[in-house]
Design brief:
single chain; about 300 residues; alpha+beta; Arc Repressor Mutant, subunit A; 2 domains; three-stranded mixed beta sheet; 8 helices; about 30% helix; about 20% strand
């Protein structure tokens, strides 16, 4: 696609360093015991592809009813998320999900004995009265994981509003529809579309600027939400030099990594600096999420217009 250009980008638009903590969207921790973790690749060395998620489906995978278009479902999710935030008096980022839960009348308590990071329950007091909603949270040290876990359980709490808005009976939806709705709501509570999209456009989709503004959301969640926005993009996530996730928001399989994308990734991985390159009509942005014993890099590849192979 022609020659490429690269430039280094400061770690943060306001100075300083990348926040140390990050979280997988599903809460799984990176394997810090992976052989060779933190090492750099030699020039020309081939990157390893292990358990790569290359999606062939659209970014919004909520199977509720064949009569509903993805745009209708997305609009309902956005509306419910904004209503939930508004009812709690939250009108700007970052969203503190523990504060949000309390404002909604949902108690949050720590329960280190549970196997998962959080669960939504209804607790009945010893006195008579209706059961009250509560979120039992494990003692997770990472802030983004705590916020995601609580946001997901709030999503469970509010999922019925999405079904009601779409006039869908939960029992008639796919078996995992409620869980998927809860996850989609969680992403929109931490990164509401009405705020996130204009902010992303204003900073030209700079991951580090967005992370600074939406501090309670993980880098990965920010990257995945980019897939739910209009520009045609591919998101690639690398852990310890391995491509773990590559997905496009266009129909069909994401194109393989190009030579320029590989060059951009290597620079981010080795230098620990944000990079930007151009390949024909495509803009490639890369960001490091590095900490001791763990190296992650995220690439965002955008085509100038739809119809270009991304």
């Amino acid at each position: 696609m022609g020659c490429s250009r690269r430039r280094n980008i400061p770690l943060c638009s306001g100075g300083g360093s990348i926040p140390k903590t990050d979280a997988e969207v599903n809460g799984d921790s990176p394997d810090r015991n992976w052989p060779g973790a933190g090492g750099c690749h030699r020039p020309g060395e081939m990157i390893k592809y292990t358990n790569v998620h290359i999606s062939v489906a659209g970014p919004l995978e909520v199977h509720m009813s064949p009569e509903l278009a993805p745009e209708e479902i997305a609009a309902a999710l956005d509306a419910v998320a904004m209503d939930v935030l508004g009812s709690a008096g939250i009108h700007s980022p970052p969203v503190d999900c523990l504060q949000l839960a309390r404002a909604l009348g949902i108690a949050v308590a720590v329960d280190d004995s549970q196997p998962g990071r959080a669960r939504y329950v209804r607790l009945r007091s010893r006195r008579s009265g209706p059961a009250k909603p509560a979120i039992l949270l494990s003692g997770e040290p990472r802030a983004e994981r705590r916020h995601w876990a609580v946001a997901h359980e709030i999503g469970e709490h509010a999922a019925h509003l999405v079904f009601s808005l779409l006039a869908v009976e939960p029992c008639q939806a796919a078996r995992n529809a409620r869980e998927t709705v809860a996850s989609q709501l969680a992403g929109r509570l931490l990164l509401p579309t009405r705020w996130f999209l204009p902010d992303a456009e204003q900073c030209r989709w700079d991951m580090l600027a967005l992370k600074s503004r939406y501090a309670t959301a993980s880098h990965e969640l920010i990257a995945r939400r980019m897939l739910e926005c209009a520009p045609p993009v591919i998101i690639s996530i690398f852990d310890h030099g391995e491509l773990r996730f590559r997905r496009s928001n266009l129909a069909g399989r994401a194109a393989p990594l190009s030579a320029v994308e590989m060059e951009c990734w290597r620079a981010v991985h080795t230098l620990g600096l944000a990079q930007q390159e151009w390949e024909g009509t495509r803009t490639i942005q890369g960001w490091p999420v590095h900490e001791e014993g763990w190296k992650r890099e995220i690439l965002r590849t955008e085509a100038a217009e739809f119809g270009v192979d991304v």
